[in-house]
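Anyone able to model this chain together with EPU?
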Amino acid sequence: MIIKNNITLKPFNTFGIDVKATEFASINSIQELRDVLNTNPTDLLILGGGSNILLTKDVEALVLQINLKGISVISRSENSVQIEVAAGENWHELVCWCLNENFGGLENLSLIPGNVGTAPIQNIGAYGVELKDSFVSCEALNIKTKELRTFTKEECQFGYRNSIFKQELKGQYIITSVVFELSNQEHSLKTNYGAIETELQNYGIKTPTIQDISKAVISIRNSKLPDPKTIGNSGSFFKNPVVTYSKFEILQTLFPQIQHYKISTDVVKIPAGWLIDTAGFKGKTFGNFGVHAKQALVLVNYGGASGMDILNLSIQIQKAVKFIFDIDLETEVNIL
Ligand code: EPU
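re: yes, here you go
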């Protein structure tokens, strides 16, 4: 393992922000991870796929890129399998591997950028499915003691784009592998969210397979979300805010078009994309950065923008949404 000095993080964050790290190491084994932590670095930044981070300044820390690899079936029963996946595996490549093996459960999560090890931190989700639905446990290394610990699903305390690793254990553990339970026959399909049903109808498919669902999700995502390989972005920049039903009713009288997802009788989730769109930001560009033209929830770097440019735009959006709707937008992306 080699520690490099003063290197650009541009290739390691999907926003494509060009900042430098004082130290950087790519980690290929648990032993390397322990060795590097034994050097007692003063500050650490753990990078997975760099798909949920906005870097606003040079990173005065040792940046670890977790590159642990490997996917294996660890148990099989009549209808399901458990697989163990190393943290550095690319998320979408894992989904493709599962589809190839005909293992069901992750197909709705096709094409989400990032790596397997960072997926539990924010309990990634899309099209009616969240990581927690097939998650069994994960193994994580305690940064202080360098000991490995297994976290069960309950211990991870998953919520909407949330887990214990974003809350009380923030910065204390590095996830090294994740165990998933997947179906190997009679897959339970989730087709009722968003445009999946319509997309399948367009293909003329009445009894879809998990592969068909993945194809539909990929097509929907490609039509709305920019590919980070061509346009820098971090997916949804904000979380969808949750408001009380009474507040929603007031907003509905003012904005009859307002969209919502019911969470319980008392609270609803409002799509942040709709709020930002209605506030007039969709498709706005400010030189080399802006708001994506097809999905207002996504902020984009067309090339050469700084993290501060994107951060200032996000603050401007938060102020406008607060002013117009009296709603606080919380960022989903981690800002550093
Ligand atoms: N909408 C607008 N204008 C926009 C964008 C959205 O009016 O510019 C409206 C849409 O018409 C739709 C509603 O808002 O009725 C919701 O939009 P969409 O279905 O595109 O999903 P979302 O709520 O914006 C969430 C996740 C996405 C995930 C999709 C699909 C969050 C913050 N985002 O987006 O996750 O892919 O649902 O399940 O929960 C991510 O986390 O990076 C991400 C992309």
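The CA atoms of residues 103 and 184 lie 5 Å apart.
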